[in-house]
Amino acid sequence: xxxxxxxxxxxxxxxxxxxxxxxxxxxxxxxxxxxxxxxxxxxxxxxxxxxxxxxxxxxxxxxxxxxxxxxxxxxxxxxxxxxxxxxxxxxxxxxxxxxxxxxxxxxxxxxxxxxxxxxxxxxxxxxxxxxxxxxxxxxxxxxxxxxxxxxxxxxxxxxxxxxxxxxxxxxxxxxxxxxxxxxxxxxxxxxxxxxxxxxxxxxxxxxxxxxxxxxxxxxxxxxxxxxxxxxxxxxxxxxxxxxxxxxxxxxxxxxxxxxxxxxxxxxxxxxxxxxxxxxxxxxxxxxx
Length: 288
Ligand code: PXG
Fold this sequence. Notes:
Blueprint: E1 2-5, E2 8-11, H1 22-26, E3 29-37, E4 40-41, H2 44-57, H3 66-79, E5 85-92, E6 109-116, H4 122-127, E7 129-133, H5 154-165, E8 171-174, E9 180-183, E10 187-192, E11 195-198, H6 209-220, E12 224-227, H7 232-236, E13 240-245, E14 249-256, E15 259-260, H8 268-283, E16 286-287
Parallel strand pairs: 7-8, 7-14, 11-12
Antiparallel strand pairs: 1-2, 1-6, 3-4, 3-5, 4-16, 5-6, 8-9, 10-11, 10-13, 13-14, 14-15
3-[O-phosphonopyridoxyl]--amino-benzoic acid is lined by residues 33, 156, 182, 185-187, 206, 208-211, 244-247.
Protein backbone atom coordinates (compact mmCIF):
# COMPACT_ATOMS: atom_id res chain seq x y z
CA UNK A 1 0.00 0.00 0.00
CA UNK A 2 1.27 3.46 -0.89
CA UNK A 3 0.63 6.37 1.43
CA UNK A 4 0.56 10.05 0.51
CA UNK A 5 2.81 11.67 3.11
CA UNK A 6 3.63 15.38 2.92
CA UNK A 7 3.39 15.55 -0.84
CA UNK A 8 5.02 12.24 -1.79
CA UNK A 9 3.82 8.67 -2.14
CA UNK A 10 5.79 6.31 0.09
CA UNK A 11 5.48 2.61 0.91
CA UNK A 12 3.46 1.87 4.03
CA UNK A 13 6.59 0.70 5.90
CA UNK A 14 8.24 4.08 5.21
CA UNK A 15 5.13 6.12 6.08
CA UNK A 16 6.28 7.34 9.49
CA UNK A 17 5.71 10.47 11.53
CA UNK A 18 7.72 11.88 14.40
CA UNK A 19 7.00 10.97 18.04
CA UNK A 20 7.08 14.77 18.53
CA UNK A 21 4.12 15.24 16.18
CA UNK A 22 1.41 17.08 18.09
CA UNK A 23 -1.20 14.97 16.34
CA UNK A 24 0.19 12.07 18.36
CA UNK A 25 1.17 13.95 21.52
CA UNK A 26 -2.07 15.93 21.89
CA UNK A 27 -4.58 14.83 19.27
CA UNK A 28 -3.90 18.25 17.75
CA UNK A 29 -5.11 17.81 14.19
CA UNK A 30 -8.11 17.13 11.98
CA UNK A 31 -9.25 14.31 9.72
CA UNK A 32 -11.85 12.99 7.31
CA UNK A 33 -13.08 9.50 6.48
CA UNK A 34 -14.20 9.28 2.85
CA UNK A 35 -15.47 6.42 0.65
CA UNK A 36 -15.29 5.58 -3.00
CA UNK A 37 -17.79 3.36 -4.76
CA UNK A 38 -16.82 1.72 -8.04
CA UNK A 39 -14.46 4.50 -9.04
CA UNK A 40 -16.55 7.41 -7.74
CA UNK A 41 -15.57 9.33 -4.60
CA UNK A 42 -18.76 10.04 -2.67
CA UNK A 43 -19.27 13.66 -1.54
CA UNK A 44 -15.56 14.42 -1.87
CA UNK A 45 -15.97 18.20 -2.01
CA UNK A 46 -18.14 18.20 1.12
CA UNK A 47 -15.46 16.22 2.98
CA UNK A 48 -12.69 18.56 1.82
CA UNK A 49 -14.79 21.59 2.82
CA UNK A 50 -15.44 20.12 6.28
CA UNK A 51 -11.72 19.36 6.72
CA UNK A 52 -10.87 22.99 5.96
CA UNK A 53 -13.56 24.21 8.38
CA UNK A 54 -12.27 21.97 11.19
CA UNK A 55 -8.72 23.20 10.47
CA UNK A 56 -9.82 26.84 10.36
CA UNK A 57 -11.44 26.59 13.79
CA UNK A 58 -8.34 25.06 15.37
CA UNK A 59 -6.19 27.65 13.51
CA UNK A 60 -4.31 25.03 11.55
CA UNK A 61 -3.24 26.16 8.08
CA UNK A 62 -3.49 23.22 5.70
CA UNK A 63 -0.41 23.43 3.44
CA UNK A 64 -2.41 22.55 0.29
CA UNK A 65 -5.26 24.11 -1.62
CA UNK A 66 -8.60 22.31 -1.87
CA UNK A 67 -7.98 21.33 -5.55
CA UNK A 68 -4.54 19.95 -4.58
CA UNK A 69 -6.09 17.78 -1.85
CA UNK A 70 -8.81 16.58 -4.23
CA UNK A 71 -6.05 15.47 -6.64
CA UNK A 72 -4.07 13.84 -3.83
CA UNK A 73 -7.13 11.80 -2.77
CA UNK A 74 -7.76 10.71 -6.38
CA UNK A 75 -4.06 9.80 -6.80
CA UNK A 76 -4.12 7.79 -3.55
CA UNK A 77 -6.95 5.63 -4.90
CA UNK A 78 -5.34 5.31 -8.32
CA UNK A 79 -1.84 4.29 -7.16
CA UNK A 80 -3.37 1.67 -4.86
CA UNK A 81 -5.72 0.45 -7.63
CA UNK A 82 -8.81 0.79 -5.47
CA UNK A 83 -12.28 1.04 -7.03
CA UNK A 84 -14.10 0.67 -3.69
CA UNK A 85 -12.03 2.30 -1.00
CA UNK A 86 -11.93 3.95 2.39
CA UNK A 87 -9.82 7.09 2.51
CA UNK A 88 -8.42 8.59 5.69
CA UNK A 89 -7.20 12.13 5.16
CA UNK A 90 -5.31 13.56 8.15
CA UNK A 91 -3.63 16.91 8.82
CA UNK A 92 -1.83 17.32 12.13
CA UNK A 93 -0.20 20.36 13.74
CA UNK A 94 3.13 18.73 12.90
CA UNK A 95 6.36 18.17 14.76
CA UNK A 96 6.93 20.40 17.78
CA UNK A 97 8.42 20.07 21.23
CA UNK A 98 6.97 18.58 24.42
CA UNK A 99 4.99 21.72 25.23
CA UNK A 100 1.46 22.44 24.02
CA UNK A 101 2.48 25.61 22.16
CA UNK A 102 1.35 25.14 18.54
CA UNK A 103 3.75 27.90 17.41
CA UNK A 104 6.58 25.39 17.91
CA UNK A 105 5.12 23.26 15.11
CA UNK A 106 6.61 24.73 11.97
CA UNK A 107 5.08 22.44 9.35
CA UNK A 108 1.77 20.53 9.48
CA UNK A 109 1.90 16.81 8.70
CA UNK A 110 -0.46 15.67 5.94
CA UNK A 111 -1.16 12.07 5.03
CA UNK A 112 -3.72 10.08 3.09
CA UNK A 113 -4.35 6.38 3.59
CA UNK A 114 -6.45 4.70 0.90
CA UNK A 115 -7.37 1.19 1.92
CA UNK A 116 -9.95 -1.46 1.23
CA UNK A 117 -13.21 -0.80 2.99
CA UNK A 118 -13.96 -3.13 5.90
CA UNK A 119 -17.64 -3.78 5.34
CA UNK A 120 -19.90 -4.38 8.32
CA UNK A 121 -21.52 -7.84 8.47
CA UNK A 122 -24.71 -8.05 6.35
CA UNK A 123 -26.69 -9.30 9.40
CA UNK A 124 -26.29 -5.84 10.89
CA UNK A 125 -28.38 -4.37 8.09
CA UNK A 126 -30.84 -7.26 7.90
CA UNK A 127 -31.56 -7.66 11.63
CA UNK A 128 -30.76 -4.19 12.92
CA UNK A 129 -28.72 -3.13 15.93
CA UNK A 130 -29.46 -3.51 19.62
CA UNK A 131 -27.73 -0.55 21.33
CA UNK A 132 -27.63 1.31 24.65
CA UNK A 133 -27.20 4.81 25.98
CA UNK A 134 -24.04 5.24 28.02
CA UNK A 135 -23.01 7.38 30.99
CA UNK A 136 -20.20 9.11 29.07
CA UNK A 137 -21.74 12.35 27.83
CA UNK A 138 -20.89 13.88 24.47
CA UNK A 139 -18.34 16.69 24.68
CA UNK A 140 -19.94 19.99 25.59
CA UNK A 141 -19.75 22.18 22.45
CA UNK A 142 -18.50 25.10 24.55
CA UNK A 143 -15.48 22.99 25.57
CA UNK A 144 -14.68 20.96 22.43
CA UNK A 145 -17.23 21.33 19.66
CA UNK A 146 -18.10 17.97 18.10
CA UNK A 147 -18.43 19.82 14.79
CA UNK A 148 -14.63 19.92 14.73
CA UNK A 149 -13.60 16.55 13.33
CA UNK A 150 -10.40 16.51 15.37
CA UNK A 151 -7.95 13.72 16.16
CA UNK A 152 -9.20 13.89 19.74
CA UNK A 153 -11.67 10.97 19.77
CA UNK A 154 -11.29 9.81 23.39
CA UNK A 155 -14.81 11.03 24.22
CA UNK A 156 -16.19 8.68 21.57
CA UNK A 157 -13.79 5.86 22.41
CA UNK A 158 -14.77 5.99 26.10
CA UNK A 159 -18.43 5.69 25.08
CA UNK A 160 -17.58 2.80 22.73
CA UNK A 161 -15.69 1.01 25.53
CA UNK A 162 -18.74 1.39 27.79
CA UNK A 163 -20.99 -0.19 25.18
CA UNK A 164 -18.56 -3.02 24.47
CA UNK A 165 -18.04 -3.71 28.18
CA UNK A 166 -21.80 -4.02 28.57
CA UNK A 167 -21.97 -6.45 25.63
CA UNK A 168 -23.22 -4.04 22.94
CA UNK A 169 -21.66 -2.85 19.70
CA UNK A 170 -22.68 0.80 19.71
CA UNK A 171 -23.48 3.57 22.20
CA UNK A 172 -25.88 6.49 22.15
CA UNK A 173 -24.31 9.52 23.81
CA UNK A 174 -26.42 12.14 25.57
CA UNK A 175 -25.69 15.82 25.99
CA UNK A 176 -24.84 17.40 29.33
CA UNK A 177 -28.56 18.15 29.77
CA UNK A 178 -29.64 14.63 28.82
CA UNK A 179 -30.72 15.09 25.19
CA UNK A 180 -29.79 12.57 22.52
CA UNK A 181 -26.71 13.65 20.54
CA UNK A 182 -25.18 10.91 18.37
CA UNK A 183 -23.38 7.58 18.46
CA UNK A 184 -19.61 7.14 18.64
CA UNK A 185 -19.06 7.46 14.88
CA UNK A 186 -22.58 7.86 13.49
CA UNK A 187 -25.44 10.34 13.62
CA UNK A 188 -28.85 9.18 14.79
CA UNK A 189 -32.33 9.61 13.27
CA UNK A 190 -35.84 8.60 14.23
CA UNK A 191 -38.89 8.19 12.02
CA UNK A 192 -42.37 8.85 13.42
CA UNK A 193 -45.22 8.83 10.91
CA UNK A 194 -43.99 10.94 7.99
CA UNK A 195 -41.49 12.81 10.14
CA UNK A 196 -37.76 12.18 10.04
CA UNK A 197 -36.05 13.79 13.03
CA UNK A 198 -32.40 14.17 14.02
CA UNK A 199 -30.78 16.26 16.78
CA UNK A 200 -29.68 19.81 15.86
CA UNK A 201 -25.90 20.48 15.63
CA UNK A 202 -25.99 22.99 18.51
CA UNK A 203 -26.64 20.18 21.00
CA UNK A 204 -23.20 18.82 20.15
CA UNK A 205 -23.03 16.54 17.14
CA UNK A 206 -20.92 16.28 14.04
CA UNK A 207 -22.74 17.61 10.97
CA UNK A 208 -22.41 14.26 9.23
CA UNK A 209 -22.20 14.20 5.46
CA UNK A 210 -24.29 11.01 5.38
CA UNK A 211 -26.72 12.80 7.76
CA UNK A 212 -27.04 15.67 5.27
CA UNK A 213 -27.51 13.23 2.38
CA UNK A 214 -30.23 11.32 4.25
CA UNK A 215 -32.02 14.59 5.07
CA UNK A 216 -32.03 15.46 1.35
CA UNK A 217 -33.17 11.97 0.32
CA UNK A 218 -35.96 12.09 2.92
CA UNK A 219 -37.18 15.46 1.67
CA UNK A 220 -37.28 14.24 -1.91
CA UNK A 221 -39.36 11.28 -0.69
CA UNK A 222 -41.90 13.79 0.71
CA UNK A 223 -41.00 13.08 4.31
CA UNK A 224 -40.92 16.01 6.73
CA UNK A 225 -37.36 16.50 7.95
CA UNK A 226 -36.76 18.23 11.27
CA UNK A 227 -33.80 18.98 13.50
CA UNK A 228 -35.19 18.76 17.03
CA UNK A 229 -34.03 18.04 20.55
CA UNK A 230 -34.77 14.39 21.28
CA UNK A 231 -35.02 12.48 24.53
CA UNK A 232 -34.60 8.74 25.11
CA UNK A 233 -38.41 8.61 25.44
CA UNK A 234 -38.68 9.94 21.85
CA UNK A 235 -36.33 7.22 20.62
CA UNK A 236 -38.11 4.44 22.55
CA UNK A 237 -41.45 5.46 21.03
CA UNK A 238 -40.31 6.06 17.45
CA UNK A 239 -41.56 3.90 14.57
CA UNK A 240 -38.02 3.51 13.30
CA UNK A 241 -34.50 4.49 14.35
CA UNK A 242 -31.35 4.37 12.23
CA UNK A 243 -27.74 5.54 12.32
CA UNK A 244 -25.80 7.24 9.52
CA UNK A 245 -22.09 7.50 8.77
CA UNK A 246 -19.59 7.18 5.95
CA UNK A 247 -18.38 3.74 7.03
CA UNK A 248 -21.72 2.30 8.21
CA UNK A 249 -23.95 4.12 5.67
CA UNK A 250 -27.51 3.64 7.04
CA UNK A 251 -27.89 1.07 9.84
CA UNK A 252 -31.29 0.19 11.33
CA UNK A 253 -31.63 0.16 15.12
CA UNK A 254 -34.26 -2.23 16.52
CA UNK A 255 -33.66 -2.06 20.27
CA UNK A 256 -32.46 0.71 22.61
CA UNK A 257 -31.84 0.14 26.35
CA UNK A 258 -33.97 -3.01 26.18
CA UNK A 259 -36.96 -1.24 24.54
CA UNK A 260 -38.07 -2.61 21.19
CA UNK A 261 -38.29 0.08 18.50
CA UNK A 262 -41.41 -0.17 16.33
CA UNK A 263 -41.89 -3.74 15.15
CA UNK A 264 -38.38 -4.75 16.23
CA UNK A 265 -37.33 -5.09 12.59
CA UNK A 266 -35.72 -2.62 10.17
CA UNK A 267 -38.54 -0.25 9.17
CA UNK A 268 -39.89 0.44 5.69
CA UNK A 269 -38.67 4.05 5.51
CA UNK A 270 -35.22 2.96 6.66
CA UNK A 271 -35.10 0.31 3.91
CA UNK A 272 -36.26 2.76 1.24
CA UNK A 273 -33.68 5.31 2.35
CA UNK A 274 -30.96 2.64 2.24
CA UNK A 275 -31.95 1.75 -1.33
CA UNK A 276 -32.01 5.42 -2.37
CA UNK A 277 -28.64 5.96 -0.70
CA UNK A 278 -27.05 3.02 -2.54
CA UNK A 279 -28.43 4.31 -5.81
CA UNK A 280 -26.85 7.70 -5.13
CA UNK A 281 -23.44 6.20 -4.33
CA UNK A 282 -23.54 4.40 -7.69
CA UNK A 283 -24.51 7.42 -9.74
CA UNK A 284 -22.81 10.42 -8.13
CA UNK A 285 -19.33 11.30 -6.99
CA UNK A 286 -15.94 12.45 -8.24
CA UNK A 287 -14.45 10.12 -10.87
CA UNK A 288 -10.75 9.17 -10.74
N1 PXG B 1 -20.56 11.51 14.24
C1 PXG B 1 -19.28 11.29 14.55
C2 PXG B 1 -18.81 11.59 15.92
C3 PXG B 1 -18.41 10.77 13.58
O1 PXG B 1 -17.12 10.56 13.89
C4 PXG B 1 -20.25 10.73 12.01
C5 PXG B 1 -21.04 11.26 13.00
C6 PXG B 1 -20.81 10.53 10.65
O2 PXG B 1 -20.33 11.54 9.77
P1 PXG B 1 -20.22 11.29 8.19
O3 PXG B 1 -19.77 12.58 7.66
O4 PXG B 1 -19.23 10.17 7.99
O5 PXG B 1 -21.57 10.92 7.73
C7 PXG B 1 -18.90 10.45 12.29
C8 PXG B 1 -18.05 9.79 11.26
C9 PXG B 1 -15.52 4.82 11.15
C10 PXG B 1 -15.26 6.19 11.55
O6 PXG B 1 -14.56 4.14 10.72
C11 PXG B 1 -16.19 7.21 11.36
C12 PXG B 1 -15.90 8.50 11.76
C13 PXG B 1 -14.70 8.72 12.36
C14 PXG B 1 -13.80 7.71 12.55
C15 PXG B 1 -14.05 6.44 12.13
O7 PXG B 1 -16.66 4.37 11.28
N2 PXG B 1 -16.70 9.63 11.63
